[in-house]
Fold this protein.
Amino acid sequence: MSKFKTVIWPKVILFGDSITQFSFQANGWGADIANKLARKCDVVNRGLSGYNSRWAKIILPRLISSHSSADNNNNIAAVTVFFGANDCALEDKNSQQHVPVQEYSENLKEISRLLTSSGVSADRVIFITPPPVHEAAWEKECILKGCPLNRHNSAAGQYAQACVQAAGQCGADVLDLWTLMQKDGQDYTVYLSDGLHLSVRGNQFVAQHLWGLLESRVADLPFILPYWGDVDAKDPESSLLCDQ
């Protein structure tokens, strides 16, 4: 029987669609957050390209089980919930991904309830709204795939508003990308690579604003394992097998 404790890293879980799945690419917002939290926290990518909130609420219990030990889920510092970019697809153009806005709102609330029942309290949850859609650029992508334009920026805005309202009702924080990226009439197209997904600048924008919400949740997390200069070179076990 070992006499020392296993080192357990706290976790930040990024739960979402392709915008989350792609966030660990070079210059991605998830990679930026993970870099900031090195030696303090594991940032776990649970992005599922193409998924909507209907499928997300079904799959979530398989990702964060309520049967996990309380210690495991108490060790979750924060969860981001980033859906809507697929839900807001136009029903007559993309019925497979489309979710009606009222159902989307209820799905987000159900995701919050599932997290709470698994020991992740609402104050550790951050909802993220879909970003704006640049229709002209996205239409080009759609045409290349042999389909008509299947998303409108105005529809994305309705889902963003529903996300903000659901977060308020759940007691969760929210990052309203749709509004922030268009604030003061700025050119939001610079934040998008293809009209829907994020460009390098878009990733930087998300990382910066998300860190503003995350920082307070991870500020008290300790630096894990001793700084190398503090290790006793003559008796490293005394430094490295302590409870720090």
